[in-house]
Amino acid sequence: MGKDGQNRAYLFSIVLIAVIGGLLFGYDTAVISGAEQALDAFFKGASDFTYTRLLHGFTASSALIGCIVGGAVSGLLASSFGRKKSLLIAAVLFFVSAIGSGHPESGLLPYGEPSLALLVSFNIYRIIGGIGVGLASAICPMYIAEISPANIRGTLVSCNQFAIIFGMLVVYFVNYLIRNSLADTPEGIIAAMTEIGWRRMFISEAFPAGAFFLLVFLVPETPRYLVMKGRPDAALRILARINGQTEGARILSEIKENIVEKKERLLSYGFTVILVGALLSFFQQAIGINVVLYYAPRIFENLGASGDASMMQTVVMGIVNIIFTLVAIFTVDKFGRKPLLMVGSAGMMIGMAALAVFSFCDLIGIGALIFIIIYTASFMMSWGPVCWVLISEIFPNTIRSQAVAIAVAVQWVANFAVSSTFPSLSAWSVGGTYLLYAAMSLLSIIFVWRMVPETKGKSLEDMSGLWKGAGAAGTGV
Q1: Cβ–Cβ < 8 Å for 423, 37
Q2: C-alpha to C-alpha distance for 73 and 139, rounded to whole angstroms
């Protein structure tokens, strides 16, 4: 029990289970990084169609279509079935996708024979997993925000981003181990990856997905959802166990006052709050982070590394990402959301601009690797976790599930647009592509400075008052 009466052990155990959804989010989106070149080689062997660069770009990012769908329906599922049941649905989708992506033949198509039908089947399973990612990306931070006390909410929601990055690092290691267990020679590894390696990479996700499904049964529903569904007694039991009886009763009173105020339409607080949430999502993707995450091994190969070296550099980058995500976790409730976002944007702009210069000058070496690390480290201590913190807390209670769904859907649309266009853009001009992402980083600084309010230390119930003036005036904060 903490000095403030909070049962930190119970709270942390709930959050620890919830963030496994974030781990699966990272695992599912990054597993493609180790498998995409093998998939390219596998489907190029098809005789009934030509596997083009455009098709490969779609295949490498097809899960993002599911992410858009999952993000879009997350609000409906969260409000209709609750946050907890929505997490269970996401876990099932992760598991089905893991098995199906590894065996897209599904007992219906000839095993190991590349064909257009097999490509379609593979992408369907990846889209199913993407729906799980879309749900988890919206529901996990929402769940954590609604269960957490205001004074440590930013820290706990940031843990979800840590789990995302940790999931990516785990799958980088898993991919590396699978790759190097297949054969003893580079030629043998390439052949085995094309035949069986990519399958094992996708199937490996079934283990954490199954564990997540079982563990979610142990966590409670969020108090705010229970109040909205007319179950204040159940909400009080959870609030009292987390915050102590007196503080729990006070928080319940705040929630009830806010919930019964009125059943609000999506635009009850004006268009600005929705626009800010959507632009937060847009800029988190438009700055190009997922290009680095999805295509990391190929980027490192373009910078002069090859084979195991590129995979190991990807692992090193994952470790750097974790370290700087921890920086955000320990500072977001101390320095606030806006300062971290603006400092991170400046670091990303410098990193991408430098990479553009290196590319234009055809300078490949350790310098380029350093600026990739500067770029990703800047993202991980700012936009990575802090964007999710703001999306989970910035909307008033009565419109949160709908507004979060819109913001998350925008994020995955932007993610898909950036990731699927990278192969074609890089074929046009690698340096020009990096320069585009640098420009987006600059625009994100201006956006945060002018439009994003500071929410540090405010309760979720305070968000109604924060946006009422903006809704009445129809202008920004």
Answers
A1: no
A2: 11
CB 284 within 8 A of CB 387: yes
Q: Examine the pLDDT at 213 and tell me if it is beyond 90.
A: yes
Query: Phi, psi at residue 16, to the nearest 5°?
Result: -60, -40
Closest by CA position to 397, among listed 228, 219, 149, 279: 228
pLDDT at 98 over 50: yes
Looking at residue 441, its pLDDT comes to 93
Q: How far is 138 from 461, CA to CA, in rounded Å?
A: 19
Write out the two tokens for 171. Answer: 């799958």
140 alpha-carbon distance from chain centroid: 10
How would DSSP label each residue in 167-213? Answer: HHHHHHHHHHHHHHTS-SSHHHHHHHIIIIIHHHHHHTTHHHHHHHH
The CA distances from residue 292 to 53, 114, 181, 411, 437, in Å, are: 18, 28, 26, 16, 11
Alpha carbon 286 to its chain's center: 14
Q: What are 381-433's pLDDT values in tens digits? A: 888 888 888 888 888 777 777 888 888 888 888 877 887 777 777 778 877 88
The pLDDT confidence band at residue 310, using thresholds 50, 70 and 90, is: low
Whether the CB-CB separation of 146 and 6 falls below 8 Å is answered with no
How many separate helices (H) and strands (E) can be counted in the chain? 23, 0
Ramachandran bin of 365, using left for φ above 0, alpha for ψ from -120 to 50, beta for the remaining angles? left
CB of 212 closer than 8 Å to CB of 83: no
- State which H helix or E strand residue 407 sits in: helix 400-428
- Residue count of the chain, please give it: 477
- Each residue of 311-336: pLDDT tens digit? 566 667 777 778 888 888 887 878 88
Which of 42, 223, 246 lies closest to 143 in space, CA to CA?
223
In whole angstroms, give the CA distance from residue 199 to residue 258: 50
Side chain identity at residue 384, one-letter code? G
The end-to-end CA distance of the chain, in Å, is 38
pLDDT of residue 54: 81
Residue 383 · residue 284 · CB < 8 Å: yes
Question: DSSP string spanning 239-264?
Answer: HHHHH-HHHHHHHHHHHHHHHHS---
What is the token pair recorded at 321? 């990402």
Q: Evaluate if residue 291 carries a pLDDT over 80.
A: no
CA gap 126, 93 in Å, rounded? 10
pTM, rounded to two decimals: 0.78
**112 residue type, one letter:** G
- pLDDT score of 264 more than 60: no
The helix/strand/coil state of 113 is coil
Among 315, 301, 441, 318, which Cα is nearest to 364's?
A: 301
